[in-house]
Here is the input.
Amino acid sequence: MTEARPLRRDARDNIAKLQAAALEVFLAKGLDASLDEIARTAGVSIGTLYNRFGSREGLIDAVVPEVAGSKLLVFGAGVLAKDTPRERLEEFVTGMIELQGEDPALNDAILRRYPDAVALLGICDRSIALGRDLVRDAHADGSLSPDFTEHDLFCMLWLAGIANRDPHAPANWQRVITRALDQAWTATT
Amino acid sequence: MTEARPLRRDARDNIAKLQAAALEVFLAKGLDASLDEIARTAGVSIGTLYNRFGSREGLIDAVVPEVAGSKLLVFGAGVLAKDTPRERLEEFVTGMIELQGEDPALNDAILRRYPDAVALLGICDRSIALGRDLVRDAHADGSLSPDFTEHDLFCMLWLAGIANRDPHAPANWQRVITRALDQAWTATT
DNA sequence: TCTCATCTTGAGGGTGTTCTCAAGTTAGGT
DNA sequence: ACCTAACTTGAGAACACCCTCAAGATGAGA
Here is the structure.
């Protein structure tokens, strides 16, 4: 147990400024945004950033999990509100792709590009677990073909993730992925 | 018309060494491999590389189109040997994904990562044109759903391309893409 | 063998990033 | 008002890449 002395006020202010700046920049440019830019946006030197957060992962974990977590929580509730296993899984896939497209930071989180940002990974895992459950339900229900595995679902989200990161992505690439999901339902209309 | 003096022998030798090295390195690591490494592999200085080829694109165009072209030619013949439009298109998609997976240089070419490598782009365009024709045939034939466009085909190859470039790609991501194609056939078994 | 146009060389300048640390500044207790 | 531990700072080292150019080496014709 380290005896926790209170921080000096300038230190606390700088932490707050850095967190706000990091959030802004990470959301705009993804988790590999330049730390220099974050420090500049915060109006603080790069040294201070390292003093306070130690590493990029430290900064990520201090800032992203809360925001990403609440987004995913709301999203998860929306998904579960759907009526059938099939609708839930469809909503999960299309919704995740959309979320990832809107939020480069969340996108990078799902791609696990910073495995040392432990807190963030935990948040993502919860969402992945939801997806896994939905696949199971849809299997149990008989609506999803057994040869569509949870790993396939993960591949879809991963594909969407790397697609989002490419600045030269062609229009409507999402259709390839949603089509793949469409293929996986068992007969019926 | 520039009067073409013959090159000195050392110059010609160095060009040959650089081409061999470039081919080897590009095939192994893709078109964004370090030019320094290519020069080192050739046993020649980086300055000579620039003297002879002017730029990365110049080197690419001097070396990749021939190899990629003959691969794609053989591949195209194999595709056309299939019996039905559907089989041809299926072969085209799975085969291209496989080729791209085996050959990072070809993969980068299809992603058009070096738009100034004009000769290489020309080669790729021929293959893309083949794909486009196959989509048309399959449409005409009635086996491919009209809402699967040639752009969708291009998106598939592009997705495969960026997937190949990710060293952390999950296993069997190809299934997502082939499933998407499966979805696009009109009824029947 | 001698000459010189042609060719090669690699250190060095430019870019963009991460991370450090010696020196300077300041909050806040006395 | 003064002191000092806590804090901030930013130049700079390290890395990895691109591309250039003045100086030196050499093939080949005379």
